[in-house]
Amino acid sequence: MTAKSPFCYADDHAMSEPYIFTFGSRQFNLSTRTHIMGVLNVTPDSFSDGGKYLNTEAAVEHAVTMIEEGADIIDVGGESTRPKGSAYGAGAEEVEAEEELRRILPVITRLAKLTSVPISVDTYKSGVAKQALDAGAVIVNDISGLTFDNEMAAVVASKGASLILMHIKGTPKTMQDNPEYGSLFGEISDFLSAGIETARKAGVTQIMVDPGIGFGKRVEHNLQLIKDIGRLQGLGCPIVLGASRKSFIGRILDVPIDERLEGSLAAAVAAALNGVHVLRVHDVKETKRAVMVADAIKSAPTA
Q1: What pLDDT is stored for residue 92 in this prediction?
Q2: What letter would DSSP give residue 25?
Q3: Strands 139-142 and 26-29
Q4: If 9 and its partner were Cys, which of 14, 21, 213, 302 is the partner (CB 3.0–4.6 Å)?
Q5: 41, containing H or E segment
Q6: Which of 104-118, 159-173, 251-265 has the lowest mean pLDDT?
Q7: What percent of the residues of the chain are helix, what percent strand, and what percent coil, each to the nearest 5?
Q8: 44 DSSP assignment
Q9: Distance CA 168, CA 83 (A)
Q10: Exposure of 107 by Cβ count < 10 A (0-12 exposed, 13-18 middle, 19+ buried)?
């Protein structure tokens, strides 16, 4: 594995171990296997499952099911980032912080009392992150890589939380407007490196990175990212990836969202074999089983 940058760890002791992260009361060695982050969208308009878990009881029940199926982390989001474009129409509307909090806080509060499984909050708003962390979340998953809210890094640091920095080109409304790259990996690495530096300067002690599949990417960009995802290991942080049910799978297979399981599993296995540490997925049980086999293949001794 690539030598670690000091950006992703709190101290020299942590740096001496291979991606050992503490999330609340749980400690994970993210280098030993592919970990699973279950998606819990508490939204009416997410591209895959919008409206299914708006009710707190339904959302908590689904989270518990995902945990029983093997989710290592639950990622709770209260605002859809469904892009504008031919695949998804006009795209999702922005949500005020108050409404986002109204959706997610009851769910996070209940889950934090029910389980020690780490809870992540999917938000780019520092005010939402602060209250979610107070309610029991221990990870902030920022799709903007700290570029939408200048206060986010300080909030994450002040709460002793972990941070996922995702790459995005533009905004959810503009990101699929003919995205182009002079150097796909170069531009994404530069973007994430800047976020890592900002986070560390603020005092964030555990950082993960996500190349942002579908967030300002064409089909070919997404495929290149999954194929060569190991190139991002040079950033010295665990790599998170979310390809589950996304439009590039639908375009390859010519199938609607509810028929993308097999394609999602293929992408998950490829990502696991190529160096991803955490997969953000909708179908936890199926993905868990698929990557357990991929991990076994990956770790098999050479004949």
Answers
A1: 57
A2: T
A3: unpaired
A4: 14
A5: strand 35-41
A6: 159-173
A7: 45, 15, 40
A8: S
A9: 11
A10: buried
Helix or strand holding residue 297 (H, E): helix 284-299
Q: How far apart are CA 133 and CA 155, in angstroms?
A: 9
Condensed to tens digits (0 to 9), the pLDDT of residues 30-81 reads: 999 999 999 999 987 554 555 566 789 999 999 999 999 999 999 999 998 7
Helix (H) or strand (E) segment spanning residue 75: strand 73-77
Distance in angstroms (rounded) separating the CA atoms of residues 94 and 81 = 8
Under a CB-based contact definition with an 8 Å cutoff, are residues 69 and 152 in contact? no
Q: Which residues of 16-53 are buried (b: 16+ CB within 10 A; e: fewer)?
A: eeebbbbbbeeebebeebbbbbbbbbbbeebbbbbebb
Query: Greater confidence, 81 or 256?
Result: 256
Count each helix (H run) and each strand (E run) in the chain, helices first. 10, 10
Half-sphere exposure (CA, 13 Å, Cβ side) for 75?
A: 25
Q: What are phi and psi of 220, to 5 degrees?
A: -65, -35
Residues with a known catalytic role:
246, 280
**Whole-angstrom distance, CA of residue 163 vs CA of residue 196:** 9
The structural domains of the chain, with segments of one domain joined by +, span 7-298
Amino acid at 96: E
The whole-angstrom distance between residue 164's C-alpha and the CA centroid of its chain comes to 7
Per-residue model confidence as pLDDT tens digits over 180-237: 899 999 999 999 999 999 999 999 999 999 999 999 999 999 999 999 999 999 999 9
pTM to 2 decimals? 0.90
As a CATH number, domain 7-298 is 3.20.20.20
Write out the DSSP string of 159-218: TT-EEEEE--SS-TTTTTSS---SSHHHHHHHHHHHHHHHHHHHT---EEEE--TTSS--
Whether 257 has a pLDDT exceeding 70, the answer reads yes
